[in-house]
Amino acid sequence: MENKVKYVVLFYRTETGRCPTREFLSSLSLKVRAKISKWIEKLEECGPDLPRPYADIVCGKIHELRIVFASTQYRLLYFFYGRYIIITHGFVKKTDEIPGNEIEKAQNLMRDFELRIKEGDIKI
Fold first, then answer.
1. Fold of 8-118
2. Where are the beta strands (DSSP E) in 82-122?
3. Residue 124 and residue 122: Cα distance in Å, rounded?
4. What number is the average pLDDT over the span 49-66?
5. Is the pLDDT of residue 82 over 60?
6. Which of 43, 46, 77, 84 measures 20 to 30 Å from 4, CA to CA?
7. Upper half-sphere CA count for residue 11 (Cβ side, 13 Å)
8. Dihedral of the alpha carbons of 14, 16, 22, 26, in degrees to the nearest 10
């Protein structure tokens, strides 16, 4: 059987080991986590070819994985690093627009990741 995974999803971790994505996921119900997990697997299979409405470009290199469960919108923000998809964090979307602070957070975490990988602090 052929492995369909084209990309590898990783959750961003801070220098101290905190994982904002895991923290977000652990705050959700089991059913919501299961649906999000399914879409993370689909993201691994399709990468940048996962179409809207399931994924979209937010700003520059930052993308969003879009999940709706029981009329609640969940978002995971991520970026590509080679064949890796680094999910920075997640949140519940309550307005039409993605809040600027969520985009800024993803951009800051991406810059931190890229700097730490360049300096050899992160090995993948």
1. YaeB-like fold (3.30.2310)
2. 84-93
3. 7
4. 96
5. yes
6. 77
7. 15
8. -140
